[in-house]
Design a protein that fits this description.
7 helices; 4 strands; 246 residues; globular; two-stranded antiparallel sheet
Length: 246
């Protein structure tokens, strides 16, 4: 059976370094670029010729964007709508990277199966929250770490816990996406190996793992969509703390 972790191996396509840093173009970079091109094509086709009665592509673009706007309006309020383009960009990029790794027969790669990618996306959200928080509230933003009505004798402990919880947000956001995408692909690879190894013994024996793998593929497609939604949802919830400081 093939090593199920082999699919996550980073392979250098074009070596490059600058200032002692490895800036090589890898298979992960390639598939992120492909994701960006696919997103650009989708958005361009959907918005190039806007019509009063939208076609399928225009309707799809508007549906996704309105979905993000509604999520921000619900979780942040009207003031959150100004951040819709960025949250939409993060959402559709995560969604594309999640889904593109499911493309068969082309040695596709899932960029979001690597913690470096998901942590980079999570840090974008974290930095946005910090910048918005200080820009809107100044030093009063620190009150986020001390809920109103906290007794003075436990205030230092509560403030320390809240501060550590705030600092852990990019890590939990990154690990959640990375772990879900990695686990799903590992399971698919394992059962795919069972199909080949058992099918080589007897074709009938390979039917059960094949059926399981088909079900896992459908589940992984659902997880890819759900995880993109969860990432954007948590980003909007964190942004609410910065916009509507309590």
């Amino acid at each position: 059976m093939a090593n199920p972790m082999e699919q996550f191996k980073i392979e250098t396509i074009a070596p490059l370094s600058a200032g002692g840093f490895d800036l090589s173009f890898t298979n992960s970079s390639l598939w992120m670029l492909i994701s960006l091109l696919a997103i650009s094509a989708f958005l361009f086709i959907g918005t190039a010729r806007p019509q009063l009665v939208p076609g399928r592509m225009q309707a799809a673009v508007e549906l996704l964007y309105d979905f993000i706007r509604d999520m921000l309006r619900e979780n942040v309020g009207k003031d959150g709508l100004r951040y819709a383009p960025l949250i939409f960009a993060i959402f559709i990029f995560v969604l594309s990277c999640n889904l593109i790794g499911m493309v068969p027969f082309v040695h596709s790669f899932t960029p979001t199966s690597h913690i470096a990618v998901t942590f980079g996306l999570a840090m974008i959200v974290f930095v946005l929250v910090v910048i918005v928080g200080f820009a809107r509230h100044g030093l009063h933003f620190f009150s986020l770490f001390l809920p109103e009505g906290t007794p003075l004798f436990v205030a230092p402990l509560v403030a320390a816990i809240e501060f550590l919880s705030f600092l852990s947000r990019p890590f939990t956001l990154a690990i959640r996406l990375f772990a879900n995408m990695t686990a799903g692909h590992v399971l698919m690879k394992v059962f795919g190996g069972f199909v080949v190894s058992l099918g080589a013994v007897n074709i009938g024996l390979g039917i059960i793992p094949l059926g399981v793998n088909v079900a896992l593929t459908a589940l992984e497609l659902l997880i890819a969509v759900v995880q993109a939604y969860v990432f954007a949802l948590l980003a909007s919830i964190y942004l609410n703390d910065a916009v509507n400081l309590h």
